[in-house]
Amino acid sequence: MKAIVIGGGIGGMCAALALEQSGYQTEVYEAVKIIRPVGAAISIWPNGVKCLNFLGLKTQLQALGGNMAFMAYNDFQHGQTLTRFSMRPLVESVGERPYPVARADLQAMLLERYGAQRVNFGKRVSHIEQDATGVTAWFEDGSEARGDFLIAADGTHSVIRATVTGQPAERRYAGYVNWNGLVSIDESIAPADQWTTFVGEGKRVSLMPVSGNRFYFFFDVPLPQGLAEDRSSVKADLTRYFSGWAAPVQKLIAAIDPQTTNRIEIHDIDPFPRLVKGRVALLGDAGHSTTPDIGQGGCAAMEDAVVLALTLQSHSLGIEDALRRYEARRAERVKDLVLKARRRCDVTHGKQPEVTQAWYEELKQETGERILSGMQETIIGGPLA
User: What class of enzyme is it (predicted)?
Assistant: First the structure.
């Protein structure tokens, strides 16, 4: 049996690898000619790590991941530590480490595993049709592909989504802008083995270690949509938004390279009750586009891939039956992740200032148990707990 996978990003490549591991043939079609990952890095939490381990990528992932042994929140004005704790209790409870990884490195790892020469680049899907025996995808260049089933991993702007859900997808602006990139590790800004976050004024500045002696950094600022800001104004914009913030934040702003710093207006999409129609299944951002506030967007796509392959492999009542069971196993899980991220977004970014201020006060009393417990609950909901 052959699967057509639309999308060569994280979700699509994980799906192709998982399906081939389960004995299916795959063909991957990617719209762009060269993949340029959106965002500088990704935090792969233990539920995602286990999925990549399942795909045989344990050693490669460990080489790419940063050593995030501790987690800390710091006051925005003076930089003093509000709370700091070890990630060890989380690792011991769920059985795996988290790995912050540069997105380009992760994408390269997945392509190398699958075989980059096998991916059909420059193939932007225009529409699909299915019948009793399979699915045909047509591309804007006039070519077509046919398989026994089709996996739509074509991202948050999915062309295929409406065919499955039967409804248009309204992207919802989450209310904030995120700047992100990579810089060399500088321990005068933050420890090299720690996820460090400065918080205040409904804003965040965060640093995570990745391989290659680098920090992944991001800045979050609640802002209206459509401001005339781009890479030419990055340092001036961040200097203005973070005026009065602690010295390490100012040092980070001075260190960043505007030409490699991304500016993204953050959106999500209300969860869909349907992820499958006949022989077509949504996967990753095509099926559940979320804000990055709990770091589960990429991990959820990895989970999708594993559940999809295991469900197809372990059921024998036909493709459509197995895909319905995939939907049943994933719909509530991904809905929970999207809404959990949305709630965390609102608290972190000052949607209700009094709630956000109360959170800042709670951090001063935080021992790590409450935060790690919330992470554990999210992680153990994955398919490889």
Answer: oxidoreductase
